[in-house]
Amino acid sequence: MQPTPHARMRIGQLASLAGATPDTLRYYERLGLLPRPTRSNGGYRLYEHAALERIALIRKAHALGLTLREVREVLEIASGGRDPCEHVRALLERRLGEIRTRITDLRSLERTLAKALSEAERSAPTRACVCNIIESQPLTRLAPRRGRRRKEER
């Protein structure tokens, strides 16, 4: 059941309608992506219908590759009465460049892996310290990582 635009929702109802979890909404609130809701007499968060629209905007921006920090920047620009579209355009252009660089890096890695597997299939196993497939590879200088690091790497 969709709430009327003037009805207030508790966090569970909003999360369900937004396809999110209550923890996600509390996290968005802590980051300043969602305004702090009013509270009921019992202390429950009561969200306006506009919060549902805000969550949709956050998720769409995130799907375009914007970080939550960047989404907050966009929202701050908009709340200051300015049009954030130029800022968004710059963010998306930068992200596209990062993605293109990453694709180039991945294609290079693909060629390296294919070559290593091909050589491993053609050569007889030899005694190595750990693994001949790895040890037979030339040591190349690793380029510094760009952009965000995966959680496992932190």
> What does the overall shape look like?
elongated
Task: Kindly report the CATH topology of the largest domain.
Answer: Multidrug-efflux Transporter Regulator, Chain: A, Domain 2
String of helices and strands: HHEEHHHH
| Total strands | 2
Low-confidence stretches: none
Describe the overall structure:
The structure is a single chain. The chain is mostly helical. The chain has two domains: about 10-80, Multidrug-efflux Transporter Regulator, Chain: A, Domain 2, CATH 1.10.1660; about 90-135, no CATH class. About 55% of the residues lie in helices and about 5% in strands. The chain has six helices and two strands, in the order ααββαααα. The protein has a two-stranded antiparallel ribbon with strand order 1-2. Strand 1 (about 40) and strand 2 (about 45) form a beta hairpin. It is elongated and about 75 Å long. The model has no long low-confidence stretch (mean pLDDT about 85).
Q: How would you sum up this structure in a few lines?
A:
Helix content is 56%, strand content 3%. It is mostly helical and 154 residues long.
Features:
154 residues, mainly alpha, Multidrug-efflux Transporter Regulator, Chain: A, Domain 2, 2 domains, 6 helices, 56% helix, 3% strand, elongated
Please describe the topology of this protein.
Blueprint: H1 11-18, H2 22-31, E1 38-39, E2 45-46, H3 50-63, H4 68-79, H5 85-122, H6 132-135
Antiparallel strand pairs: 1-2
